[in-house]
């Protein structure tokens, strides 16, 4: 059995238990900072973790991190951005203006001081700082690829001293690339056929 | 049920021989004998409400038969907020409905029990259906959906679903969602397609095997940035409000921030509260997120909305069987779609892998029940032959099945070298609240979208039709609800609660059982304890 401390409560759980299940075992009400319970995709269970014998505080997703003897854990509540990065879906459609709009919505994107705080904070091992740099240079397609498996836990945004909001910048790049550039010919043709009335559906039982 | 099984090592040895094609199967007999919906005691008739007499699993029936969490005294003097539209639920359907109504100029409050996007949508892996292939048609999509649903689906709803599929994909791309593509030369692209179990042509569009993640993070961002939408996290709904004449006029929210109830009066309400997986029907593990506790079903039913196919649930065939710590997690149907085979303990294929989900799940339960399952560390299942898939298509695991790889990594195995033990896992509520094609229900002013609604999937859902449903019917419900008159909000009260209690008493049902559940037992939530936090005395400084 392993003993851990989570938000000030002690849990004694079998080896291999995840932090989130240990928290349930400790009697903590799981009403926030919890969602998918183990798949590691909703990003809700962000936590600060200190391992025994270490002074370093690390970030983790509690549903994907197993407890270790002497581990201390604090859940981090939903992180709200200091300033809302205001843009609308309509801003994403025009590839010619997209870089300007990105710089307008994320004025700090070019202020990266290369401290790597975002990279250390990311529980998914994404090269966040590289993605920020690519976006700042206007390489939105390359930036979008960097953030492909981002779960929007906001830990990089919390870690960034320049308030760049890296995950939101990465998501802007992803959305812009799709909305301004993806024009699949098969989809366009089918939309035309439906519009022209040549794709009727017969609902009578057959 | 036999507890015999083939030990893991023996099953691995049996895997070496190339398998014969699976035997022909009498599908109806298989389902009747082995599908969990059809087992003795799987359902009981409902005793009160608009669908009294209908079959329903006992744990869900207990909630539908329950007394309210609150009455008038709980909400006397509590804060009241007015809005054009109240959307309840922060998954895909709720976000799409909110975005659609907001685009029509309506002020929206979106209240969600957990946090925005912490839902089943974000966990969806496989993809979304839309009939866009040259060899495909809306008719083929319609026929596949009706057939897979054992002809129980509502043709008008299914027609709406398939007809607006391509437009839904365009809308998603406009919101900024990416789909996997294939270059066609000359710079043209087409969308990459996979085939779902139980369908006639490849129709699944996806973003690798993280389609729900890609969809949800785009929808969540769009909602957060929309000036007409206010998001309330940690705000479960505990009761709907009516005008005393049967019209829905809003809801009572419990704020986990304030530890208090808040009354929301609205021109209309869209319920997008998802399903019921956390009821763990028939003691199955579930793939569902923590909040899937049937809250929306309970509240809509109490206000007079009918239920349909309330006894029909989907057990996803390939839940994790081993290790026990990862039970409940899923291996996407994308694995079988890409060619992975399933083998029993004798190394035999036992069912066509791309049959409909209910059929594959029942076949796996048959193999286990008849002693041909595989046992590893006390866990039972059958084998998903991922090494065989990787040999047939080198690089496919890393290229197309990143979620599967991630899952295998967590269990400390290499799926390219070792098969995965899989067993069925409670995944989806096929039925739900009766809706019209515009998402409206029997209760005026109350709309439903997504898993909480019924009629689209009949008695079995196809892979990819859940994500499509939440977009198509999220848009339809959002648009129809937006046209409700919010100018005269008028009376909004809990009068229906008294009628409900009288009905419970008349049916001889206990008044001590309360619902909605809000959180499953594992969450350690007590409303009494939480409310006490809001009444704690403020200590004077010094």
From TrEMBL, chain A:
It comes from the Bacteria. Gene3D superfamilies: 3.10.20.30, 3.30.70.20. PROSITE patterns: 2FE2S_FER_2, 4FE4S_FER_1, 4FE4S_FER_2. SUPFAM superfamilies: 2Fe-2S ferredoxin-like (SSF54292), 4Fe-4S ferredoxins (SSF54862). Keywords: Iron, Iron-sulfur, Metal-binding. GO terms for molecular function: iron-sulfur cluster binding; metal ion binding. The keyword Metal-binding applies. The keyword Iron applies. Residues 141-169 form the 4Fe-4S ferredoxin-type domain. Residues 1-79 form the 2Fe-2S ferredoxin-type domain. Pfam families: Fer2_4. The lineage of its organism: Bacteria, Pseudomonadati, Pseudomonadota, Alphaproteobacteria, Acetobacterales. This is 2Fe-2S iron-sulfur cluster binding domain-containing protein.
């Amino acid at each position: 059995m392993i003993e851990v401390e989570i938000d000030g409560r002690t849990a004694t759980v079998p080896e291999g238990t995840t932090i989130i299940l240990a928290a349930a075992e400790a009697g903590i009400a799981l009403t926030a900072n919890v969602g998918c319970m183990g798949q590691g995709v909703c990003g809700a269970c962000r936590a600060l973790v200190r391992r025994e014998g270490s002074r370093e505080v690390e970030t983790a997703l509690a549903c994907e991190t197993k407890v270790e003897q002497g581990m201390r854990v604090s859940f981090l509540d939903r992180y709200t951005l200091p300033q809302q990065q205001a843009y609308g879906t309509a801003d994403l459609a025009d590839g010619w203006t997209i870089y300007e709009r990105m710089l307008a919505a994320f004025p700090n994107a070019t202020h990266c001081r290369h401290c790597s705080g975002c990279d250390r904070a990311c529980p998914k091992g994404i090269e966040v700082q590289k993605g920020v740099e690519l976006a700042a240079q206007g390489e939105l397609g390359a930036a979008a690829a960097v953030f492909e498996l981002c779960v929007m836990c906001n830990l990089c945004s919390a870690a960034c001293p320049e308030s760049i909001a890296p995950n939101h910048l990465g998501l802007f790049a992803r959305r812009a690339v799709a909305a301004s550039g993806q024009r699949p010919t098969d989809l366009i043709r089918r939309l035309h056929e439906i519009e022209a009335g040549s794709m009727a559906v017969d609902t009578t039982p057959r | 049920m036999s507890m015999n099984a083939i030990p893991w090592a023996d099953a691995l040895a049996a895997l070496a021989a190339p398998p014969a094609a699976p035997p022909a199967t009498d599908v109806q007999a298989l389902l009747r004998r082995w599908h969990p919906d059809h087992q003795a005691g799987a359902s009981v008739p409902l005793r009160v409400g608009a669908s009294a007499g209908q079959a329903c699993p006992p744990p869900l029936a207990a909630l539908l038969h329950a007394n309210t969490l609150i009455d008038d005294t709980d909400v006397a003097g509590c804060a009241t907020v007015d809005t054009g539209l109240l959307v309840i639920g922060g998954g895909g359907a709720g976000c799409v409905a909110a975005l659609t109504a907001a685009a029509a100029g309506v002020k929206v409050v979106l209240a969600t029990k957990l946090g925005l996007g912490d839902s089943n949508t974000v966990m969806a892996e496989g993809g979304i259906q839309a009939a866009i292939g040259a060899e495909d048609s809306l008719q083929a999509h319609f026929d596949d959906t009706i057939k897979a649903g054992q002809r129980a689906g509502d043709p008008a709803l299914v027609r709406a679903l398939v007809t607006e599929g391509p437009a839904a994909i365009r809308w998603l791309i406009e919101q900024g969602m990416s789909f996997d593509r294939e270059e066609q030369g000359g710079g043209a692209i087409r969308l990459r397609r996979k085939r779902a179990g139980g369908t006639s042509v490849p129709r699944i569009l996806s973003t690798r095997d993280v389609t729900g993640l890609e969809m949800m993070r785009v929808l969540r961002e769009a909602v957060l940035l929309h000036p007409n939408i206010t998001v309330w996290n940690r705000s479960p709904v505990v009761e709907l409000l009516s005008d005393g004449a049967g019209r829905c006029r809003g809801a009572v929210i419990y704020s986990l921030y304030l530890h208090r109830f808040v009354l929301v009066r609205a021109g209309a309400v869209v319920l997008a509260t998802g399903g019921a997986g956390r009821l763990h029907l028939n003691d199955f593990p579930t793939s569902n997120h923590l909040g899937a506790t049937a809250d929306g079903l309970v509240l809509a039913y109490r206000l007079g909305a009918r239920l349909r196919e309330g006894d029909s649930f989907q057990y996803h065939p390939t839940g994790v069987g081993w290790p026990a710590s990862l039970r409940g997690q899923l291996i996407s149907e994308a694995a079988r779609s890409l060619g992975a085979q399933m083998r029993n303990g004798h190394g035999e294929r036992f069912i066509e892998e791309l049959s409909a989900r209910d059929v594959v799940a029942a076949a796996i339960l048959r193999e286990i029940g008849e002693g041909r399952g595989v046992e590893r560390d006390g866990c039972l299942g059958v084998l998903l032959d991922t090494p065989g898939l990787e040999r047939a298509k080198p690089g496919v695991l890393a290229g197309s099945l990143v979620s599967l790889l991630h899952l295998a990594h967590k269990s400390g195995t290499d799926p390219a070298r070792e098969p995965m033990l899989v067993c069925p896992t409670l995944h989806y509520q096929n039925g739900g609240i009766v809706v019209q094609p515009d998402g409206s229900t029997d209760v005026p002013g109350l709309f439903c979208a997504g898993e909480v609604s019924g009629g689209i999937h009949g008695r079995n859902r196809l892979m990819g039709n859940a994500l499509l449903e939440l977009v198509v019917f999220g848009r339809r419900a959002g648009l129809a609800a937006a046209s409700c008159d919010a100018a005269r909000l008028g009376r909004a009260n809990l009068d229906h609660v008294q009628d409900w209690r009288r009905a419970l008493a008349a049916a001889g049902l206990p008044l001590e059982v309360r619902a909605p559940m809000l959180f499953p037992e594992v969450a350690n939530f007590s409303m009494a304890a939480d409310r006490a936090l809001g009444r704690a005395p403020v200590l004077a400084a010094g």
